[in-house]
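I would like you to sit down with the record closing this message with an eye to the fold:
=====
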Amino acid sequence: MDNRFNIRVRGCNLYYGDFQALKNVEIDIEEHEITAFIGPSGCGKSTFIKTFNRMNDLIENCRITGEIMIGDQDIYAKGTDVTLLRKNVGMVFQKPNPFPMSIYDNIAFAPRTFGIRKKKELNDIVERSLRQAGLWDEAKDRLRKNAMGLSGGQQQRLCIARALAAEPKILLMDEPTSALDPISTGKIEDLVSELKENYTIVIVTHNMQQATRISDKTAFFLLGEIIECGRTENLFSMPKDKRTESYITGRFG
């Protein structure tokens, strides 16, 4: 995969059987930036973010047309190594979903999958990933304990650490704080802001304040289309489209 990890989408249409979920979506996502997708429920945000690591491949009758480039690679081209793609494009979901195993084994899971077996190497990856996710101090004395014993906010930071352990270049986050309390949400937002130094981050959020706090760029989705996309401060202060203005001022959604 190319060294540059910007994302370029042109003319993306996605169908579930006869239903068209995405309509001619076009966007440029810059590396080392946080790009937020906002819009009402069911408007295509989560569907779209999953095209970047081909999670939609797992859904029956799902068909995609158009071009999705990561760096110089068309990720839907024949012969694409989907395993390598998913290593480079990590994903964190709405609900924390730790594996029912120890904290250590959750983090070591991806490196082991990619053939790393040496204990010292695994120990280093586990520590580095937990430190990056701001969880090391809370977890270092309980690495061998079951991850299900962590609080919700800790579990979500563990899932971020688990994604980082695969050494991705792009991090996709699908409403990563919607199930969390305000303090845990604040911790994750601080963490995401720090991570953009090393990663390209795309976040789906229902929380418009969250988009204004942490994102560099925001795209507003409605009924499977991007209505407007631009620098976050501009989109929220001077939206160009009436529908964007109606949404961000709370008139619908």
